[in-house]
User: Which sequence fits this backbone?
């Protein structure tokens, strides 16, 4: 009986001590603080991860923009090379795909662009222009001042692709190469926001000392990340 009483006393004592540990306010408060700190750490880790993701996304966006900027810069020349070869082959059907869908393409026989007299042809009209027998007035001949009254085909032969510009000596990427003409070059005024590629021959016969140079400038506007042809500017020595 005495043994049972002793065991019972020890059991009650142990339970009391354990209850004291669990219910001790200081220990409970400490556990709560630890839990709060753990939650704060978890919250901070979540914020750090979110920021890391945001930084990665920003870096990717910046990288994409740089790639697009480079692609746009390079694609002007690429587009011009495609266009000049279509012009060489007189492929007006496929050339029309590169012409600005709203502005069309302006034709100028000389470096000075006369906005009043120069003709603009819309993209959907271009494929049939080689068969069109309509005589247009494209401007005036340098020197005589007489009207340049020609069909599209005849004008094309004299004031567009009169030499093999696809094999030009020099190509100027948004930089004017031909500066020897006595006519005023107003490309920057007519096309202030557009870019151009110039195909230039310094001359063909040594006896003319470069006065027989020829130039063709293809002017492009960017629309929806694509470069569209808006101007075909022929140039040569003028009096």
Assistant:
């Amino acid at each position: 009986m005495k043994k049972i009483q002793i065991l019972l006393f020890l059991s009650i004592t142990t339970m009391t001590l354990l209850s004291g540990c669990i219910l001790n306010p200081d220990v409970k408060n400490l556990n709560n603080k630890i839990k709060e700190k753990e939650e704060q750490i978890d919250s901070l880790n979540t914020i750090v991860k979110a920021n890391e993701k945001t930084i990665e996304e920003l870096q990717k966006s910046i990288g994409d923009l740089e790639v697009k900027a480079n692609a746009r810069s390079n694609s002007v020349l690429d587009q011009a090379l495609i266009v000049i070869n279509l012009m060489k082959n007189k492929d007006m059907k496929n050339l029309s795909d590169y012409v600005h869908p709203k502005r069309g393409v302006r034709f100028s026989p000389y470096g000075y662009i006369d906005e009043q007299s120069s003709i603009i042809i819309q993209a959907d009209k271009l494929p049939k222009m080689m068969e069109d027998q309509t005589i247009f007035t494209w401007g005036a001949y340098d020197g005589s001042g007489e009207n340049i009254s020609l069909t599209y085909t005849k004008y094309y032969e004299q004031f567009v692709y009169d030499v093999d510009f696809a094999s030009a000596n020099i190509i100027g990427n948004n930089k004017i190469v031909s500066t020897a003409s006595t006519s005023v070059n107003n490309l920057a005024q007519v096309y202030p926001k557009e870019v151009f590629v110039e195909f230039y021959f310094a001359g063909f016969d040594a006896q003319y000392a470069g006065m027989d140079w020829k130039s063709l400038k293809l002017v492009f506007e960017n629309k929806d990340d694509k470069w569209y042809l808006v101007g075909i500017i022929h140039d040569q020595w003028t009096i």
Q: What stands out?
A: The chain is about 45% helix and 20% strand.
